[in-house]
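Take a record.
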Amino acid sequence: MKLLTYRTSTGLRTGIVTDKGVVPVPHSVEEIVSGGQAILAELNRLAKSEMEDKWLKEEELTLGPCLPKPGKMICVGLNYRKHADETGSPIPETPILFNKFPNTLAADRDEILIPHNSKQVDYEAELAIVIGKTAKRVSEEEALDYVFGYCTANDVSARDLQFRTNQWLLGKCCDGFSPIGPYLVTADEVGDPDNLGIRTYVNGELRQNSNTSDMIFSCREIVSYISQHMTLSPGDIIFTGTPEGVILGYPKEKQVWLKDGDEVVIEIDKLGRLTNYMKQEI
């Protein structure tokens, strides 16, 4: 199942994406994620209904973040072998974790502000995991059973702020620095999350072109590892790291940072294309 949210005069609504259009549903994404099989069965019935006169055209909708109210936002750094190589970093022995906050959320086709005090804003294509069941000290073998689904994400990073100290948070948590979407796709439709093509285009130019199989720590390893240290709850989201091809990895003389008017497209197999536009903050 493929879910999205869209903006209305009364707030965000949720829809199911089908070949014939978007089916509005009377539940928030958060209710669906935590609702288990019963609510998914109800949504499947709605998606197969014949009330096509009530269905919406996706191209006419203004989308919201596919998970508007996440719980914890946990990120894994340096989780692709070739990305670690391009930045001159050693391969981590355990996952490097940091976090983001809800102020960073943005949606497909939103403008992303380049902060007035940063000159080195970068893209990071990432597969994001959405937790569907409470997970505490789960094994790697069982870890994916706790996943509701996946979405495309961009871990936008202000590198000059990120490396101002040895804590990365400042450069990761500017407003709008976590666009996600356009869809939240259930795990059953995705299949193996560790074998998905992942790409970034800037103004149509291919910048990142990799596969989640290059991750150092797989999705099941990440979920299990985090659950050994903190309880994961339905609606928590995990950014799993970015592959090689970020601006930071270019030789310094070739580093052209994101600028006003740039179009950034993140694309992951089975999850869709996430498009955003950079705008200089005044």
